[in-house]
Amino acid sequence: MSTNYIGKSVRRVEDKRFITGKGKYTDDIILPGMTHGIFVRSPYAHAKINGIDTATALKMPGVVAIFTGADLADVNGVPCGWQVNFKNGDTMKEPKHPLLAHGKALHVGDPVAFVIAETPEQAKDAADAVEVDYEELPAVTNPAEGVKPGAPLVHDTAPGNIAFDWELGNPKAEVDAALAAAAHITTLEFVNQRMAPNAIEPRSYIGAYDTTSDKYTLYTSTQNPHLIRLLMCAFVLGIPEHKVRVVGPDVGGGFGSKIFHYTEEALITWCAHKISRPVKWTSTRSEAFMLDAHGRDHVTKAQMGFDANGKITALKVNTYANMGAFLSTFAPAVPTYLHGTLLQGLYTTPKINVDVTAVFTHTNAVDAYRGAGRPEATYLLERLIDLSALEMGVDPVELRLKNFIPAFDGVTQSGYQTQVALQYDSGNYQGVVEKGLAMLGYADFRKAQKEAAKNGKLLGVGFSTYIEACGIAPSAVVGSLGARAGLYEVGQVRVQPTGKVSVFTGAHSHGQGHETTFAQVVADKLGISMEDVDIVHGDSDTVAFGMGTYGSRSLAVGGSAIIKSIDKIIEKGKKIAAHKLEAAAGDIAFENGKFTVKGTDKSLSFGDIALTAYVPHVYPADLEPGLDFSSFYDPTNFTYPFGCHIAVVEVEKETGKVSLKRFIAVDDVGNVINPMIVEGQIHGGVVQGIGQALFEGVEYDENGQMTNASYMDYCMPRADDLPMFETGSQVTPCPHNPLGVKGAGEAGCIGSTPAVVNAVIDALWSGGHQVRDILMPLTPERVWTAMQ
Amino acid sequence: MIPTTFEYTKAATVADAIAALGNGDGKLLAGGHSLVPALKLRLNQPDRLIDISQIAELRTIHEENGTIVIGAAATHHEIATSALVRSKLPMLADGAGQIGDVQVRNRGTIGGSLAHADPAADWSAMVLAAGATIAVQGSKGTRKIAATDFFTGIFSTALAGDEIITAIHIPILPGARATYQKFAQPASRFAIVGCAAQRAPDGQVHIAFTGLSDAPHRDHAAEAAVSGKPLDAATIAAAAAAAAENVSINVDHYASEKYRKHLAKVYVKRALEAIA
Questions:
Q1: What phi, psi does A574 have (nearest 5°)?
Q2: Considering only alpha carbons, which residue of chain A is nearest residue B41?
Q3: Residue A286 and residue B1: Cβ atoms within 8 Å?
Q4: Which of A415, B37, B150, B213 is the 20 to 30 A CA-CA neighbour of A110?
C-alpha cells in the first residue's frame, strides 16, 4: 500500500494509555511477597558517622532487615562512565561511591541505612527509629570556593577537591595574544546555576531475585535499561549479565536525570538477593529535589575579543564545574566534551581556548540535564555576543551575521572544522535568523521599544543562536575521549508470518513518543499500515541490547539502526520474491509494500513474502527461512541541529518583575518525521530553558542544606507565566544518517535561556540602566536591585 | 512522604468536632492544603484528624443584619464565585480568586486559612481591612474575635485549643471601596506582599498587610496619611512613605528586608490608586 506517514503530525499512539491513566510505571508494579524500603539519609552535608544503632528499629512491627554501610564494605561503588584525565596525564580522581555511606556522609541525603519492611509505613516508622551518631564537619558547596586553599576536603584522595582539569582548543598563548591585539574585549564572569530536573515521575526501583533460577530482575525508571544492567553487573555487584533482567517500563520523564546508574538501583538488587524477596523503593518528592542528579552549576569567566570591524578574534573561557560529592555516570563529559567542544558556536572565531576545572563539593551529584553542556556553552556565547553589541553600540543581529559560518550542505561542500575538535555536518545559520527576524518584525520592535522608553516602560528583545552536537555518538571518537561505553544503537525488525512487524529498539521512550515516530518510519519504509507495527523497548530480555535515550539521539542513532534492519528485510524479500516470480533478484523492485518484477505487472505483496519466509515451501535453496534482522548502527559523526530564539520582555520598573511577551523559536533539526511531536519537544524545551532564566535554581546554604527543596520554594514555570510560543522551522538534512534527522529533544532548552536573559538586559539598557549581568534565575528582586 | 499513624473522625456537627478536639491531641482537617503536606513530612504528628469539611452549618454564605456571614468551611472557590459576595463585598470575591491555583481554591477553606495563620496567606489582609469579626465556638460556648485581635504571630492566633472557627462576619458598607493587591511568590503563589485597603463612605481607610511581617496587621501610620482625606497623588504618596516602617520585616529566598519594604510601599500605592 502507498503510505506517507513521514512528515505527518500523526497523533501519538501512546497517549491513549497515558491520558486515561493506564500507563504502567515502576511504582505501579506489585510483585508477590514484595517488601518496601526507606532510606535513612544524612541530614548533614559533611559528617563523620560515629555509630548507627538499629536495635530499636529492628524490633519494630513488620521490619524485615536493615542494612548499613558496614554490611556493604566489600561491595563496589557505582562507577563513573566517562574518564577525563588531568591535563598533565594524571588519572581522574574517582573516589568510591558506595551504595551506603560508610564512616562519612558527604552530602545531605547521602544514604546511611536502608530499612526494609512489609509496608512502606512500617519501613518509614522504623527508619525514624534508627539512631545515627553524627559529628558534623565543615562543608563547601561552591566549586570556585572548593579549590581555594583551606577549603574543607570532600575526599582525602582529591587534593584541592579537584577531580580533574582539562583544556581544549588553541594554545592559551595564541589566544592571549589575539586578545591582547583585540580592538574590543568583552569580559563576563557569571554563574550558570544548578538545576533540579523535576521529572514528574519520581525515581522508583524494584529488585527481585529468584532462588531457583539464580536470576535477578530490576524494574527501574531509567532512560537506558541495558546500560544500567552493564554497569551494575560488571562494575558494582559482579553478577553475571545473562542472569539479570532490567526493565524500564513506562517512565515519566527524565531530562537526563534517569540516564545515570544510581546507588539505589544496585543496592535494591543486592538486598533482593540478601533477603530473597522483592524490594521496592520509590523516591519521595523531597528526595527527588535533593538527590536526582542536578544539572549545570558552572562558575565561569569568559572573554571575547573583536577587531575594529567587529569580527571575533578570540574566545577564552575558564570554568569551575561542580561535580558534587561523587562523579555521576556521565558527569565528567558534561563540562568538557559536551561544553568545551561547542564553544565555536555559529561563529568563525579563529582562536579559542577553554579551560575547565572539575571540583568536588559537599553537594548532590551534577550530571547531564537536558542539553548537558551545550546550554552552558550557548549561554556563554550568546550572552557575550549580545553584551558585546551593547558595549560596542552595534546591532546584536548584525554582529552575529558578520561572524557567522557561511551556509554549507555537507554533501557538495565539506563539513565545517571547528577550533574545538568537532566537524559540523551541515548548516544554514543565516536562514534561521532571517526567518526569526521576519516573525519578530525587528524594525517595528525597535521603534516600539523607543516609544515605550519615552513612556517610562522597559521593553527588550534578546537573541540567541545556537548549535548543538546530538545523536551521540561515533563510538571510536567518544572512546578516544574517555567514554567507557560505545554509543551505537540496536534495532531489530521482526516480520511476523502474517506480515505484521515487531520492532525492538535499544532507544527508550520516556515521553518522546517513539511508539509513534518509529512506527511512522517503519510503516512507510515497508509500505504497511502503522497499526501493523509494534514498537518494543525497555526490557533487556526482549531487546537485544541498547544504549538508551539521551542527547537527542533516539531517531538519529536508534532510527538509523532500524533502517539498517529494514534494508536487510527488503533485500531478503527481494530474493524470496525473485524465486517465486521466477526472476532475478536484481530485477525486483520494492515500492509501496509490493515486490514487483521491474517493467511487468508481476508482483507479490509484503504479506505474501512474509508468509513465504515462514512457510518456505517454494523457496530459494540457499536462503534461510524467516524474516528477522537485527542491526547495530554506529554513527559516523554527531548531528548538529541549530536555530535562532528570540524573546521579547517587559520589565516592570517598580518591582523588577519580568513579563515574557513573545517567544519566537526557529529551529533546524534536519528532516522531521512528526511535526507535532517536534513542536511539542521544542515547546517543552523552551519552557525548561525559560525556567532556568527566570524561575528555577537549586539553592544551598553555607552548611550545604538545599533550602528550596519543595514546590513551595523551587519555582517551576507555569502556563500563566508564558506567552503563546511562535515556532518556525527550517530543514537542512543531516548528510550522514539515512533519515537525514538531527534530533529535537534538547534544542528548545539550549536556545531559550540566553534569549530571555539578553532580552531583560536589553530592556534595562533601553531605560538607561547599563547592567551587564544578573544572576539567574532573574527574580524580580535581582532585576530590581540591578536597576538601583 | 508518609505520615505517622493517626485516627480519622468525620464530624457531623460543630459540637461533635469540639467534643473530639477536647479528647486528646487532635487536629482539625478542612481543605487540608497546609495540614496534609505537614503530615506527610512528619512536621506535624497528631493522634487524630477531625474532618470538619462536610459540616453543613459551616458551609453557608448568607447575609444577616447588614453583614455577610461566610461559613468557615466555605472554599475559596465558593467565595470567589458567590453572587452575594461579589455584589456586596467584591474585594473578597476578587481576593479569593487570587489564592493559589484552581486546585487550591477548590479544596482550601477560609476558616482553615485563618486558623492556620500562615504569615503570607491572602485572607488575613482582607479580613483585617474589611473590619471582619471571627465567630468561634468551643467547649465554653461561642465568642466573636475582631480580626485585629485574631492574629498573634507566626502561625498563631487567639483561638483556644478547643475552639473552632464557625464563621467570618464581614460588615457591608454601602458605598465603600476596597481592593486586595498582591505581589505573589512565584512558586507558592502566597503573598510576598499583599495589601488590602478599604475606604469607608466616611473617608476612614483601613490598610492591612500580609506577607510583610510575622503576623498580618493593619498599618496605622499609612492609614493616618489618607483617612478622612481625599485620595490623591499627594496623600497616596504620603501613605506609601509612611507604610511598612517600624515593623519587623520577613526575609526569605524571594525578598530581602529592603526589597520587601519597597514592595509594601509600591503595593500600598497600587491599592489606594485602585480605590481612589
A1: -65, -40
A2: A286
A3: yes
A4: B37
Q: Which residue of A has its CA nearest to B40?
A: A284
Q: What is the mean predicted confidence (pLDDT) over B210-223?
A: 98
Looking at chain B, the whole-number percentage of residues with pLDDT higher than 90 is 96
Q: Considering only alpha carbons, which residue of chain B is nearest residue A786? A: B259
Between chains, do A714 and B187 touch, taking CB under 8 Å as contact?
yes
Residue A210 to residues A32, A214, A269, B214, Cα–Cα distance (Å): 12, 5, 11, 58
Domain check: are B167 and B182 in the same one? no
Same domain, B33 and B66: no
Other beta carbons less than 10 A from residue A200's beta carbon: 8
Which residue in chain A has the smallest CA separation from B191? A712
Q: Which three cell numbers stand for residue A381?
A: 556565547
Dist CA A372 CA A681 (whole Å): 16
Chain B partners of A120 at a C-beta cutoff of 8 Å?
A: 2
Contact across the interface for A781 and B187, Cβ inside 8 Å: no
What 3 state SS string does B164-200 have?
EEEEEEEECCCCCEEEEEEEECCCCCCEEEEEEEEEC
Give the structural domain span for B185. Answer: 177-275
B237 in a structural domain? yes
Chain centroid, CA A76 distance in Å: 27
Q: Do B4 and A125 touch (CB under 8 A)?
A: yes
Q: What ipTM was reported for this prediction?
A: 0.96
- Residues within 8 A of A (CB atoms), B 237-256 only: 253-256
Please report whether residue B1 resides in a domain.
no
pLDDT of residue B1: 84
B162 assigned to some structural domain: yes
Which CATH code of 3.40.50.1240, 3.60.20.10, 3.30.230.10, 3.30.365.10 fits the domain covering A295-473+637-787? 3.30.365.10
Contact assignment for A721 to B266 by CB distance below 8 Å: no
Q: Poorest-confidence range of A187-196, A420-429, A475-484, A691-700?
A: A475-484
- Residue A712 has its nearest CB partner, among B42, B187, B266, at B187
Those of residues 162-201 in B touching chain A at CB distance below 8 A are: 183, 186-188
Residue A712 has its nearest CB partner, among B42, B188, B262, at B188
- If one counts the domains in chain B, the total is 3
* Chain B residues near residue A784 by CB distance under 8 angstroms: 259, 262
Q: Residue B25: what pLDDT?
A: 82
- Give the pLDDT band of residue B22 (cuts 50, 70, 90): confident
Give chain A's length: 788
DSSP string, A204-258: EEEEEEETTTTEEEEEE--S-HHHHHHHIIIIII---GGGEEEE--B----TTTT
The answer to whether residue B2 is domain-embedded is no
Same domain, B122 and B206: no
Which of B105, B140, B171 lies at the terminal end of a domain, its last residue? Answer: B171
Q: Decide if B4 touches A, using CB distance below 8 A.
A: yes
| A488-633: CATH, from 3.90.930.60, 3.40.50.620, 3.30.365.10, 3.40.50.300 | 3.30.365.10
Q: What is the fold, at CATH topology level, of the domain defined by A31-137+200-253+258-291?
A: Aldehyde Oxidoreductase; domain 3 (3.90.1170)
Q: At what angle do helices A560-581 and A514-526 cross, to 10 degrees?
A: 30
Do the domains A488-633 and A31-137+200-253+258-291 match in fold?
no
Output the domain CATH number for residue B18.
Answer: 3.30.43.10
